[in-house]
Amino acid sequence: MAEFDLVVRGGTVVTAGGTTRCDVGVKDGRIAALGEGLKDGARVVEADGLLVLPGGVDPHCHIEEPQPDGSIHEETFRTASVSAFAGGTTSVCCFNPQFKGGGILEIFRANRERAAQGMIDHSFHQTIADPSDRVMEEELPQVIAEGVGSLKAFLTYDTLHLPDGDFLRVLAAARKHGLMVHVHCENYDAILWRTRKLLEAGKTGPAYHAVSRPPVVEQEATHRAIALAELIDQPIQIFHVSCREAAEEIAAAQARGVKVTGETCAQYVTLTAKDMDRPGEDGFEGAKFMCSPSPRDAAQHGHIWEMIRRGVLDVVSSDHCGFSYGGTRGKAKNGRGASFDQIPNGIPGLAARLPVFFSEGVSKGRISLEQFVAISATNPARILGLDGRKGSIAVGADADLALWDPQKRVTLTNALMQHAIDYTPFEGIEVTGWPVATIARGGVVMRDGKVTAEPGTGRWLPRRPGAVARPTGRLPDGFDGAPAGVA
Ligand code: DUC
Ligand code: ZN
Ligand code: ZN
């Protein structure tokens, strides 16, 4: 019997810590050896001339997620798995939603079942939209026991936003259970006020989405989230940072020792608010680019790169949302004449994330190969509490690999995304660098764009964040909210 089930031979192996030419030996789905001249493989994949990268870890995807209006995303875990593998990503973290007045346990069970139909390894963040006693004290401990390692809090959206008191309750619960908190930072009331004014003035098209929520709206909420997290010494991550103003709030907090990190997405280094002004045939095309926060102006792309280089933003995600442009389930679910506040927010990007960041980052000389691996795989895995298993190429880790041709030039098209959505917001963008094979737990699941994974093979990834979610031990005045601490 061969020593290894698979040997990836002759590639250039890249980790966040360095780059080396060696073979990768895989046994029982895990990396069993890294070295020169590994010969004894039942299957050999030649990687000469290719980079061998850790499979991408996308820590922020909305897949087959139930919506407050009772609908569900068009993209299923099966179709999203195909798209992820096509783009070199091998694990995702999605969301278990909560709706105001509702629980989380029943949705969790149904969500787990849906996710198990797919092929990609997965876990969930638990969204808290209504921190009732029942949910926080009875149901939350149960989903934590099953491996949910993080909470998601929204500071905007009608159906999801938390007032400050509720947000503090979420932070305190995370502190008690040792979880990370991820925050969507935009000021709900400011957006509502601007939206009403715009609609009253008849300014209803998709382009006004950006006008309804300028950078200061994101900056204010980022500042507030950090201040409240600092108040009770709870580590947080700010999701989808789109602008210098918000990133500077994170940088300032980091400089004074607050445990806060920032994530950004491919849309914030490629798209602009002008894209939402594209008319198309019926004035609706801008909806294809509508996500929250809004894409900004081109100057912000440079600021985001600067913040990535400085490590202020240390994770890149897709914030993938399966809404088609046509039909009646996606962007046009409220009609093609719907005002901007009635169009679902979110864009698909699962397959585009790695090629966009590789090309814009590594190929254009903005970041190193190692930095690319760090932001797209290693850091997300660490923040999720999956380090050791996902996000790196090391003996004992799952054999999740993306074999990358760094010279291959590709023009992004919707067909290449292999998702169930009828468009990509990244259509026409030229990239240099492309995944030519994806290996998930030792199995070749994509080769030259052909995905061959079997439905139902995606595994649940129970998570328990370690040091990353641990408080610093420094409270502003020593008061941690426990009764004994009251002076
Ligand atoms: N923004 C979010 O916060 N969630 C989903 C989609 C989006 O654009
Ligand atoms: Zn969000
Ligand atoms: Zn999101």
Tell me roughly what share of residues is in helical segments: 25-40%
Tell me what portion of residues adopts beta-strand conformation: 15-25%
Question: Which structural class do the helices and strands define?
Answer: alpha/beta
Question: Which strand order spans the largest sheet, edge to edge or round the barrel?
Answer: 8-10-11-12-13-14-15-16
Low-confidence stretches: none
Mean pLDDT: 96
Major sheet description: 8 strands, parallel
DSSP strand tally: 21
What are the bound molecules?
dihydropyrimidine-2,4(1H,3H)-dione, zinc ion
**Spatial shape:** globular
Report the end-to-end length measured between terminal Cα atoms.
Answer: 69 Å
What's the gyration radius in Å? 22 Å
Number of continuous helical runs: 12
Word description of this protein:
With 487 residues, this protein is α/β, with parallel strands linked by helices. 29% of the residues lie in helices and 23% in strands. The protein has twelve helices and 21 strands. The chain has an eight-stranded parallel sheet with strand order 8-10-11-12-13-14-15-16. A seven-stranded mixed sheet has the order 3-2-7-18-19-20-21. Helix 4 packs across helix 7 and helix 7 runs parallel beside helix 8. The longest helix is centred in the middle third of the chain and has 18 residues. The mean pLDDT is 96. Dihydropyrimidine-2,4(1H,3H)-dione binds next to loops.
